[in-house]
Amino acid sequence: MNTRYLEEIGNIFENQNLNxxxxxxxxxxxxxxxxxxxxxxxxxxxxxxxxxxxxxxKSQLFFKNLQKAAQLHSSQKLTFIMDATQLYNIPASxxxxxxxxxxxxxxxxxxxxxxxQGVGKVIMDMYSIHKPEQLEGVExxxxxxxxVEYAINGRQSDILSDDYLNSLTKDxxxxxxxxxxxxxxxQNTNIENNGNEIIEILTNLSWEGKNTKLxxxxxxxxxxxQVLINTVITDYKQLARELEExxxxxxxxxxxxxxxxxxxxxxxxxxxxxxxxxxxMIDADFNLLAFNSKFYKHVKVxxxxxxxxxxxxLDQKEISSVYEKTISRIKIALNGTxxxxxxxxxxxxxxxxxxxxxxxxxxxxxxxxGVVCITDDITESFEAKEKIKSxxxxxxxxxxxxxxxxxxxTHDKGLxxxxxxxxxxxxxxxxxxxxxxxxxxxxxxxxxxxxxxxxLLVKKKEVTNVEVQFQKKNGDTFTGLISSMVSLDEExxxxxxxxxxxxxxxxxxxxxxxxxxxxxxxxxxELDSFxxxxxxxxxxxxxxxxxxxxxxxxxDDKEKxxxxxxxxxxxxxxxxxxxxxxxDLSRNARQEVSAEPxxxxxxxxxxxxxxxxLQNYDRIEKKISVESDVPFYSDKRRLKVIxxxxxxxxxxxxxxxxxxxxxxxxxxxxxxxxNISISDNGLGIENQYLEKIFDMFFRASNSSKxxxxxxxxxxxxxxxxxxxxHVKSKIDKGxxxxxxxxxxxx
Length: 746
Known about the structure:
InterPro entries: HATPase_C_sf (IPR036890), HATPase_dom (IPR003594), His_kinase_dom (IPR005467), HisK_dim/P_dom (IPR003661), HisK_dim/P_sf (IPR036097), PAS (IPR000014), PAS-assoc_C (IPR000700), PAS-like_dom_sf (IPR035965)
Protein name: histidine kinase
CATH class of the largest domain: Alpha Beta
Catalytic activity: ATP + protein L-histidine = ADP + protein N-phospho-L-histidine
GO molecular function: phosphorelay sensor kinase activity
Largest sheet: 6 strands, mixed
Strand order of the largest sheet: 1-2-3-4-5-6
Mean pLDDT: 80
Oligomer: single chain
EC number: 2.7.13.3
Shape: flat
Number of domains: 5
């Protein structure tokens, strides 16, 4: 490999006083038989030298680095000089990679100069003959010296120009002529030697073929004919290798295809013999062409004949007489018609055997070459289908008359079977409407229940009587008990089979029964408490009155008698209050709620008037605020009971130790409800008793002045008119009751 050529080119640059450097990071030196050097000259010229044996891999690397070099100076384009004079040849694999002549490649360069020697000449000549249009703009230069001078000065020099010759003296001219003659003599000798060597190479190529060696000569390798011969030899060897690869690949594929054909034939024969059907084929003259093992056994067992390929069925009397019907069917197939047949065989009026047959013509090149007959004994499957049909009729009758909704569904397809009860239960017009109902989640009052139930089924495989709230087409809901199971068909598809029972009426009756039971328990508890407390609260005032009367009988002092009468009056008032509470409680439980227009101001004033004679009434400030811009309807009598109890408590339990006791009543009413708050700054209630104050006969202390059922009556009365009550209280700070009462008009 002539690596000294790099030094020769460097000498040319130095002789012309040109600055240059080898781009080491781009140069290719990792191959033993190929080198490439990228030289940057005067920062304006890229001189590229390729030396040795090229191939496709090296060519790709060469162009990759060449493109990097082109982008070294983004501010200006470089002049590109390609020196391929030191390559041994230019094989076809490399020629396919050459991009010098691509228009897209030329945009990177100010000029593209090609040294027209050696392989460079071969490349240019090839393109001149086959693709001359791609050489446009690529300039040929005779040698490296002229190429560099052209790149620097912008013109090509001719060492034999008239100006050059006229500048010589007589002796210099004689010396130049002698030099040229000597050079011509050497060239003639080289041409003769090269010609002989070329003849030898071509002879070897003819005799040795792909084993022909590349040209190894002491003659100057730059001769383009030598390079071209080496290129031809290299291409020939490459073609020979490709031909061998194609032949080897063809042989391998042929072996594979033959193996596949044999395998397929064996497979088809195995399949043919494994069929449960009796299969046989005859030609137009009724000669057997092929048959499977089932036909062989059938004919041998039934008729004692061993069938053979080529046997004529019409010549076999044992067969032809029995096959008379089949032969007529074969004649129909020979006319080009394919038919399916079903034959029933009876004994004593009962079907004992059912046979299906298919007879069809075999077409070869649009001509009928024979007939294939396929016969199956379907007695068992026929009987099974008949049983299935009978069962289906029974199931259809059950599905039509049963009240439960029966269904089958899949996760992807939705409902695929439902009965009439299902359609009726969900309020649809037809089965088809449900089959095409895309959003099955809408059949559930809570759409997430379908997904939840599906996951439960996948996990447990079966569920029984799961309670679910369903939704009808019109939006009404009902309670259903669903029982379902997961099943798989022969293909592994998953189905969800189940039944839904509407238990809304049962559920409603159960809830009503539970409610009545709770109310009954409550009434029993309250009755026990009432009997116990009432006997005490009724007897206590009566005993006091009786004792006071006995004292008064023997008393002559008028002042003491007056005091006794005052105590009797208080006991009677207490007894009267208790009786009123009992009457209010009884009325609330028995009488229906009535809706009457309410004047809140009037109600409050009537209530306050009832208690104006209470002790300390005048000391307590009454703050009243009523906002009601719409007609408000409620049960007037019950509202009176509620206000009487709450307001009277605020008055009775005021704080005597403060200077500004008050009762504040705030009411705001709208179209839907009234919000009522009754608050005071009285004695208050301890926090531990707040949850118990609405219990019957509960008294927070022995000093309580009431009967113990007032707040119980308030709670029961508010619940009767579907309202709510809440309480907040602090000892010595006061109490606040907050009520929400619905507007019964709306």
